[in-house]
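Thread title: Can someone regenerate the structure for this chain?

I was given the following input by a collaborator and told the matching structure tokens would be attached. They weren't. Posting the sequence so someone can regenerate them.
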Amino acid sequence: NVENTAESAEKPADLLCYTPDPAEKFIGTPCRTAEVADIRTLFDPPVSREFLDYFDILYVPAHSFADAVKKAENQPFPELAAVLPVYTPSDEALGKLLASLKKSGCGRVLCHSAGQVHLVEKYRLCADMSFRANITNTAAFAEYRRIGCDKIVLSPEIPPAAVESIGGGAVVYGHLPLMTLARCVICDGTS
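Best answer:
Regenerated them for you:
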């Protein structure tokens, strides 16, 4: 939570979430982001300078964040942020992960639910909202802004005109996973 100071009282309500300095330039402005499933695609072999210059934020898996930061050290890289797991077994487990991310220098995380946003705020990290939250209207968008989300990616199921009227971001290119399963339905021998 942000302390109620004279400085914060002058800011619009949607800017009151804690935001580390490197991310402040993105508030309220268009931002190109990429969700990277495996950091090896960034470093082995290294991606092109054009790729890195195109994006403002690269979201990497939370469990790989510290390694990505080390590999990107001393290179002109976009802001690195962490993607939280879609599922964590408990708030305690998520809290440990967030503490580890904070210690590794993470300032921004991509969340998938309102519950994750509330825990992220406790660690004073900036929360962005994934398309997985299925935000499809202005009321949902306003609620996620109210609870502290900075960047909000709208549901890929809504038409482009709705994206414009709501005001969030949209997935415009890339791979959209249909579902996330804990067990492989092909290899686990039960199907």
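Strands lie at 33-35, 57-61, 79-83, 108-111, 126-129, 149-152.
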